[in-house]
Write a structure and sequence with these properties.
With 76 residues, this protein is α+β, with helices and mostly antiparallel strands. It has one domain: GMP Synthetase, Chain A, domain 3. It has three helices and three strands. It has a three-stranded mixed beta sheet with strand order 1-2-3. A hairpin with a 2-residue loop joins strand 1 and strand 2. It starts with a helix and ends with a strand. 14% of the residues are buried.
Amino acid sequence: MKDFLEFIAKHLVDNPDQVMIALAERENKAIFTLSVAEQDVGKVIGRKGRTAQAMRTLLAAVAAREGKRAILEIND
């Protein structure tokens, strides 16, 4: 899941080398914290949060296949 999320994020931003993803697992949840360069935050969030919501939806689908729950947090 982490590789999948990293792939998506790196293709959205201008500075793919500054994409960092931290993973914290608790019980049946995987909490991903996405950090990007300051000027790329808007690209990851998208207009009215649509891009971020789409990423969360895709991540939830991948996690469901593994029987887990995934949460995506975006740090600015």
